[in-house]
Amino acid sequence: MTDFEVGNIAATAVLTAKMRALETGRPEPLISDPYAACLVEHSGLDMASVQLEQMTGQRLFESNIVRTHFLDTSLQAAIAGGVTQVVILGSGLDTRVARLELPSQCVVFEIDQANVIAYKKRVYSEEGVVVPADWRPRSGDLEGDWIGDLTTAGFDPEVATAWVIEGVLFYFSDDVVAKLIQTVSDYSAQGSQLLAVHFGAGALVEAQTREMAAAATNAGGYGFKSIVAEPVGWLDEYGWDVEAETFGSAAQRLGRTIPYDIEETPGQEIAWLIKAVKR
Ligand SMILES: C[S@@+](CC[C@H](N)C(=O)[O-])C[C@H]1O[C@@H](n2cnc3c(N)ncnc32)[C@H](O)[C@@H]1O
Question: What ligand 1 atom has the least distance to the C-alpha of 17?
Answer without folding.
Answer: 9
